[in-house]
Amino acid sequence: MLQYVIWDVDPELFHIGSFSVRWYGLLFALGFLIGMQIMTYIFKKENKPVTDTDTLLIYMVVSTILGARLGHFLFYEPEILLKNPLEVILPPYRGLASHGAAVGILTGLWLYSRRKNSQATGQTFFWVTDRIAITVALAGACIRFGNLMNSEIVGRPTDVPWAFIFMNNAEYEKIPRHPAQLYESISCLILFFILLWFWNRNKERTPRGSLLGIFLIWVFTLRFFYEYLKENQVAFENNMALNMGQILSIPVVLLGVYFLFRSYQQKTTHRDTVSVK
To answer: Where a 1,2-diacyl-sn-glycero-3-phospho-(1'-sn-glycerol) is bound, by residue (predicted)?
Structure first.
């Protein structure tokens, strides 16, 4: 039996002069880099132009960062957004909201699919989002592990034997807490393998919107329940029955249910049409 984990990891990997490389930034970048390798593999398997992955990477990076930053200020610190809107794009990036990232990515991929003349290339909105969902699940695992390395987004106090004592977080008492970041990281990693298996089994026959629907339902349903194990991110949440993360997760889960239902409804309709012919 474990006797708690003393988490005393330095969030800085190394530094050269005034330039430092932190675990979080490295894992964030790694999620994009590995993700694009996976997308290149998918494009090759489904006979799509591999050169398009370069453009797709740009859309993903810009939409993720802008969406996550804007979401953070809109949902958690709107007063700062009103005072200094440039903080959305200027470093240091001290606040990133996953719900904002989800909206940003969906918007960016909609613009990407329109630019790529989706009907001609087969890169429709749902074709792209289904496959990007695989890589985003892996990136989510990397990012949440980065939060663990930063000793941030910590869990509530607990006496479970796998609890972590976060020595480098001055905001909270150094007592055993749920490693909530690790829970989410492992959940995203499991989802990555499920989505990859599902795509590999179906490839171009993958029902449009199915992987996106599974992703949204899995990630944000778990996010809703994980919030009960986490400390609130901002003070105003302490007086709320549901915190901001839970409130925002509900419509995203419902959207995922709609996408999943729609994908299989269209699949059934297509199969019935083929049978009639």
So the answer is: 144
Q: How far is Cα 110 from Cα 130, in angstroms, rounded to an integer?
A: 12
Beta bridge partner(s), residue 6: 165
Q: Is the dihedral angle over the CA atoms 31, 8, 154, 16 positive or is it negative?
A: negative
As given in the structure block, the two tokens for residue 234 are 């901002």
- 271, pLDDT greater than 70: no
Q: List pLDDT tens digits, range 79-95.
A: 877 777 777 666 655 67
Measure the CA–CA gap between 262 and 266, rounded to whole angstroms.
6
| Structural element, H or E, at residue 86 | none
Binding-site residue numbers are 144
Q: Look at residues 134, 78, 132 and name the one whose alpha carbon lies nearest to residue 105.
A: 132
The answer to whether 253 and 217 are in contact (CB under 8 A) is: yes
**Residue type, position 158, single letter:** T
CA distance 169 to 171: 6
Q: How many CA atoms lie within 13 A of 144 on its CB side?
A: 23
Q: Please give the model's pTM, rounded to 2 decimal places.
A: 0.89
Distance between first and last Cα of the chain = 63
Tokens of 34: 């590995």
DSSP one-letter code for 34 = H
At residue 119, the pLDDT reads: 60
